[in-house]
Fold:
Amino acid sequence: MRQEFESTLLENCVTEIARLPGIGRKSALRLALHILRQDPTAAESLGKAIIDMRRGITYCKVCHNISETELCPICADNRRDRSTICVVETVKDVMIVESTGQFNGLYHVLGGVISPIDGISPDQLEIDSLVSRIADGGISEVILALGATMEGDTTGYYIYRRISQYPDVKVTQLARGVALGNEIEYTDELTLGRSLRNRTLFSDSIKA
Structure:
């Protein structure tokens, strides 16, 4: 049963906070009341930070990572290995892979994985732009750092088929230190780092 509040302002705040993923109305109420107890400047700082983030952050025109400029800091860094692209599902996965300290190449954020049951088809993901990057040349390896799920495997196979027309590009995937059914987001840094170092040819998984 939905709880109604005497204050319309509190009701509106709770409703908006509850729109966030993983936040129910009880948690939203707790957060709203916490904000209400703070000095007004704290609430203003929080609101300004959210507005500034939303207005100031865009997506890198090359890899689709978040960025405050046309190119994200990773794509703009000439010290990175520009011959290797690590393909991930989300921006958060970029942060997680970076935290391992085991990868010095570039990234490509798909924005999701193929999932017919959720209505997500290949043309809704950044797969065409990945193929275009490969077609431009200079890429020797594509690492599929996708979750060890049915959707991740389906997406990996689709990408493998799409770029198989470029025989000089090696397609690898994370070693199965990432447990079956796991998303990259829930894999610890040590395991993920080891999986990156011990990555295997994607074609071997098809033959298996």
